[in-house]
Amino acid sequence: MPALEVHNLKKNFGDVQAVKDISFSVEPKEFFGLLGPNGAGKTTTIRMITGVLKPDAGSVMIEGIDLRSNFLDAKMKMGVIPEVGNIYPDLSARENIELVGRFYGLSKATREERADKLLTDLGLKERADDYARKFSKGMRQRVSIACAMVHEPPILILDEPTEGLDVMSRRLIVDKVKEMNRNGSTVILTTHNIEEASRLCQRVCIVNKGSIVAIDSPEHLRRTMEKMQAVEVGFDRKVEQAWFLSDDISRVEQCGDKWRFYTEDPDKAIEKIVKVKEAQGLKILSMSTTGPTLEDVFVKLCEVP
Q1: Cα(27)–Cα(203) distance, integer angstroms
Q2: What is the pTM of this model?
Q3: What's the rounded Cα separation, in Å, for the pair 47 and 155?
Q4: Most CB atoms closer than 10 Å: which of 45, 123, 237, 252?
Q5: Phi, psi (5° rounding) for residue 238?
Q6: How confident is the model at residue 28, as a pLDDT?
Q7: Which among 163, 22, 195 has a CA at the least distance from the CA of 81?
Q8: What is the DSSP letter of 77?
Q9: Neighbour tally for 118: CB within 10 Å
Q10: Is the pLDDT of residue 165 over 70?
Q11: What confidence tens digit (pLDDT) does each residue in 227-267 have?
Q12: Is the model's pLDDT at 29 over the cut of 80?
């Protein structure tokens, strides 16, 4: 039985069709990513899955439980981390976590034990009894994560959980989410961070303009676009992009102090690069070939015609 089943979800806001007949399923213990540009319908989809929004049509099943007809039973299966933390500012970090534990019916001893572990794992032990209003954005988000995890939910849903956070907070949150997944929780992640999705997710669903445009593993998606191979080269001095344009190099772009040459045939592209190098008296400092990244796939699938 899937951990999550979404069937024919639709949602309109006035004349705008935000979600157009979306269907997918997520297997137990899977780390699943929901990607898409701003306005694609990701957050609207997540809000329908978590019961915040009522769909105009379609259904959501949480471990076989119909969200619409058994709302509380389905919600008990989920831990939800919104993009903006929803903790109580006039409670301490510990009080926030233990209060949510009470909502889920945990005993006092269990609440205290789990709160202590979460505070330690998320780097908040020394600030456990400080009011949340004194915390930075990253610390508040860590408390929000702890609140979502205190009942050890079988399904963890994260909507842009690390957006705008400092490196330390992002790492602590990602490490804790990965631990939950290893321990058996299904994770559903929406993110703009394509590198993060590629690193964490077993499958990704790319949404654009309210519809699913692709759903597969990051590696399989990359393999469907093998023509987007690239040769990345570092030169000893400034070069001109126009020197390299040819039938064998479809696109040239500068990436920091290196140049990236997109091609269907890396061998011919390298021949062209070497010819330009000799003609212009350049010295090659580094050279590497790369296949398409998940970001390349994302941009290609979501590009405006």
Answers
A1: 10
A2: 0.76
A3: 15
A4: 45
A5: -65, 140
A6: 96
A7: 163
A8: T
A9: 25
A10: yes
A11: 567 888 999 888 888 888 888 888 888 888 888 888 878 88
A12: yes
Question: Worst-scoring range by mean pLDDT, 35-44, 221-230, 249-258?
Answer: 221-230
Which residues have C-beta within 8 Å of that of residue 254, sequence separation ≥ 6?
Answer: 241, 260
**Is the Cβ–Cβ distance between 232 and 287 less than 8 Å?**
yes
User: Domain boundaries in the chain?
Assistant: 4-217, 223-302
SS3 for 132-191 is HHHCCHHHHHHHHHHHHHCCCCCEEEEECCCCCCCHHHHHHHHHHHHHHHHCCCEEEEEC
Per-residue CA distances from 157 to 142, 191, 252 (Å): 15, 11, 39
Same fold, 4-217 and 223-302: no
* Cβ 262 vs Cβ 249: under 8 Å: yes
Separation CA 36–CA 42 (nearest Å)? 7
d(CA 280, CA 129): 65
The CATH number of 223-302, from 3.10.20.30, 3.40.309.10, 3.30.70.100, 2.40.33.20, is 3.30.70.100
Looking at the domain 4-217, which fold is it? Rossmann fold (3.40.50)
| Side-chain half-sphere exposure of 74, counting CA atoms within 13 A | 22
Share of the chain above pLDDT 70, in %: 93
Q: 44-102: per-residue pLDDT in tens?
A: 999 999 999 999 999 999 999 999 999 999 999 999 887 666 789 999 999 999 999 99
